[in-house]
Each structure stands twice: as C-alpha cells, then as structure tokens.
C-alpha cells in the first residue's frame, strides 16, 4: 500500500484543537523533523515556542524518509573540497558528525524507544572504483575515518565499497512523536502568508518575535527567492520481507543505484530518483520490484511509498537567516536525501542563532553565502528549466486528447480553449483540474506512478482530484468530475 512503514507501525499523538495565542517568542512553521527538533531545542533553552503545521505532526517528508542517520552523504566531501574549499568542507563534516552524535545522546537521555540501531554506512559502486577512492582520500583529509573495501555484505558483486562505522538508523516517527508530545503544537493550521512578524493562518493571526520556516520548501517568493535556487527530486521505496539482514545502510553511487537498509524483518529498497515532473513514463515501483525479486526471489512486498527532496545549487542546505533584510526570519531547507542529519544541524544552528550563539559552521550553511564556483552552472540551468516550463502552458502544444485517454491515465488536454489536466478512473469518470500550477504558473505533468499532477519547475504536487500534496504551492487546483 502507498503508505510508509513508519506510518503503518506507529500511532499519531493527539493534539487537541485550541485557540491560537496572540503572540509567541518563536513560531516554527512545519512540524516535521527539522521543525520539531528546532522547537524542542528552543523550548529547552527557555524560548516560548509554538509549532504550526498545515496537516499533522510528522505527516510530510519525515514519514517518507528511509531514516538513515549518517554524515556520509554520497560523494559529497571530494566535491565540496573542489568547489567550496577544504575549510568549508571540514565544517560541513563537523556539523553532520555532531548531528549523528546528538541523535544518539538525545535518544539515550530522554529514553526514547525508537528502534535506534548503530550501523556501518556504505557507499558502493558496481562499476567504478576511482570515485570511492577519491571520496576516501577526502574524508581522511578532513579528519574522518573510512575504509575502502573490495566487497560488502550486499548479495551482488561490487567494484568497491567505502565504509564509515558508527552511523545509525531508527524509526523516525517514534522519535518525533516522543518529542512532539512535549511541545505546543497546532495541527491543521496552515500558514497562509507571513508579513513582517505576523503569521496569517487559517485559525487567525499570531505575532512572533522569531519565525522559522521549517516547512520543507519555503513558500514566500520574496524575499529570499528560494524558487530560483532549488529544485525538487522524487525517489521511491519498496519494503519487502523474507530477506536477510544486510547489517548496514547502503547507498549506490552509480546512475540508477539502489539504497538498502533493514527495519526489523523488512528491507527497504530505494531508488528511481528523478526531477519532479520528469516521470511521464512511470515504472519506478516496478523497477524496484524487479530488482528485489532478482536478488531475493522469495521476497514479498509489504509497502511502497515515495519521497521528495529539495536540492540546492551547491549541494549544501540553506540553514540560517532567511535573508539579510529579515533578521528575525530563519529557514531550514535543501537537505537533499539526508534529511535526518540536515534536520538536526538546522535545529542546532537556528536555535543557537536565535540565542545569539553563532557557531563556526553557521557560515557554511548560511542562505546568504556566495559559492560561485559550486553554484553558477546550476543557477543557469535552473533558470533555463523554469523559463521553459513557465512558457509551456501558453504554447499551442504539449497536450493530448480526451478521446484517447485510457482508464487509469492522465493527460493535459484542451477544454473550452483552455489547457486542463484530465484523469480517467477505471469506471470511465473523468476528473478535470487546472493544468497550471498556482505557485508560479508552470504547466503540470502527470506522474503515472503516483497518479498525481507534478510541477516540473518547483515541485508542487496535486492528486487527481486537484488536492495539494506537496508545496511550495499553498492551494489546490480545483476539480470538475
């Protein structure tokens, strides 16, 4: 079923509906891992903090993670040394090392039962050795230990594997709920807009001295212009049982590489990454199913789901002051596929910043940083990609025919001289929605794996009935059956 095993194996805490206070010292937007940890640290240090979420605590990307806690973020350190310099790379590593240790310390101190397990982390390749060798050299140069191996416990031959010990995995929602139950949380309370220090929500206004955008993708267009500095990527997960314990967490660095980690009797197989709006042919879940069956012919599928990740221009998250013009706004976004350590780094840097304790790593993650060598090419590519998709809606092509639409399929069509999104269910009913994303007007694309309308510009997503699934859009796209 299209629900993560984390959601299937835990109960949500109950947060009663209450009237919003008129003011707060700090307001955190988004009750995912980053928001909950930030609110937790602020509250522990005496800052009166409220937490607002458009839906439920942990109901966004946190419940869709594979929940690996590691500072081994793909082939990141060799690249950072080359693009932003050794000092910045060293601080990036130091912040993420602290994040891994802080999870361990917090779970132990608060006695949180969240299936926390220490595991070795592996990067592996079935075809290349040199990139792993360069990454090992980079890690050693930055003061981290890593071992380059000719093989690893995966059930297929690899060209090489880079192992880092004493990393971890856990149940993210069991951890999050343990902390959230002690916080002042307002669920089903979307923030519609923010003006200066006032948050306008569906339940009224609230004034906050400090405002933290921890809602995965910051929704204000200005200031900050985050829509021009990030894109979103989707990836897919299949949970299977009747498989062995691989005794580690694994991430493939090859094109179409797979990730693996166990959870109890289950194994999570991840992969199929693509830019949001670029899965018109589908087949990602089928690809994972075939891969799992090839490796373990007797395995059984137990769950499948997908995740969405914000990707920055230089591979470093944006954490800190939202913009130079708004010293009382903070942001945490762009964690790529490493949201667990990214969330903890954010919570530490933002809570310290609000309390006036600016650490040595803050400049590396600052949203106001200038990393021309690492960012320039990607900035141009993002602009070209957005312009192409922004103009596509107004061009007289890029649509199909309602008459040729098969049951279970979706397509952009022309209806009353206007482009619409059409989905035909198995009974032949057609659902019509706007084909234009309400965020900035890009033409939406049908994702057959998810039966969703996806924005190729900035990653907003909507179900076949037009209901909002993922931001930065804040409204749905309507429907007509």
Describe the structure.
By secondary structure, this protein is an alpha+beta fold. Helices cover 26% and strands 30% of the residues. It has helices at 5-8, 33-44, 76-83, 86-110, 130-141, 172-180, 284-295, 339-354, 362-365, 372-392, and strands spanning 23-29, 49-52, 68-69, 117-125, 147-149, 160-169, 185-186, 191-195, 198-201, 204-213, 230-241, 249-252, 259-263, 266-275, 300-312, 318-323, 326-333, 409-415, 418-424, 430-434, 445-447, 452-454, 461-463, 468-470. Strands 3, 4, 5, 6, 11, 12, 13, 14 and 15 form a nine-stranded mixed β-sheet that branches. The longest helix is centred in the N-terminal third of the chain and has 25 residues, at 86-110. The model has no long low-confidence stretch (mean pLDDT 91).
Short structural description:
The chain is an alpha+beta fold. It is 26% helix and 30% strand.
Key features of this structure:
481 residues; alpha+beta; 10 helices
Describe the secondary structure blueprint for this structure:
Blueprint: H1 5-8, E1 23-29, H2 33-44, E2 49-52, E3 68-69, H3 76-83, H4 86-110, E4 117-125, H5 130-141, E5 147-149, E6 160-169, H6 172-180, E7 185-186, E8 191-195, E9 198-201, E10 204-213, E11 230-241, E12 249-252, E13 259-263, E14 266-275, H7 284-295, E15 300-312, E16 318-323, E17 326-333, H8 339-354, H9 362-365, H10 372-392, E18 409-415, E19 418-424, E20 430-434, E21 445-447, E22 452-454, E23 461-463, E24 468-470
Parallel strand pairs: 1-2, 1-10, 2-7, 4-12, 10-17
Antiparallel strand pairs: 3-6, 4-6, 5-6, 8-9, 9-10, 11-14, 11-15, 12-13, 13-14, 16-17, 18-19, 19-20, 21-22, 22-23, 23-24
Helix pairs in contact: 2-6, 2-8, 3-4, 3-5, 4-8
